Amino acid sequence: MVNVMVWSWLGAVAFFAFLEAGTRALVSVWFAVGALAAVFAAYGGLTLTGQLLLFVAVSLAAVAALRPLAERFLEPRFVPTNADRLLGAAVRVTEEINNAVPSGAVYADGKTWTARSADGEVIAAGDMAEVVWMEGVKLIVRPKAAVEQR
What we know:
This protein has a 5-stranded mixed beta barrel with strand order 1-2-3-5-4. The protein contains 4 helices and 5 strands; from the N terminus they run H-H-H-E-E-E-E-E-H. Helix 1 packs antiparallel against helix 2. It is an alpha+beta fold. The protein has 2 domains: 2-74, no CATH class; 82-149, CATH 2.40.50.140.
């Protein structure tokens, strides 16, 4: 009977590990840990009831102890940069923005940035514009008048 239960629990370990590999959502890995503990219990000659209780206890303990730690490492991290605050900001065009040439610069946040027009429209020096998005170190802008009409 011991050999049968050892192989049964090893099958459970493999099943839960395979299931976790398919989901990668930390759903069944805890049961694989519990089943592994039950393998050793079965090998040691513990009764079936004892093996089941150990399986449940170790699985619950693994969830309680390791899930918060695992989630901290698996959650995607968004690291905002200081440049993010420029999105939507009003900026002054210091050099005519013409995508055909290509040329253009704006003054924003105490710095001069290379700029391009979002819709290809030429924006004259001295005009106000709004930052729509960023591409590397370039600000993509649209004329402030176009923004106010929307």
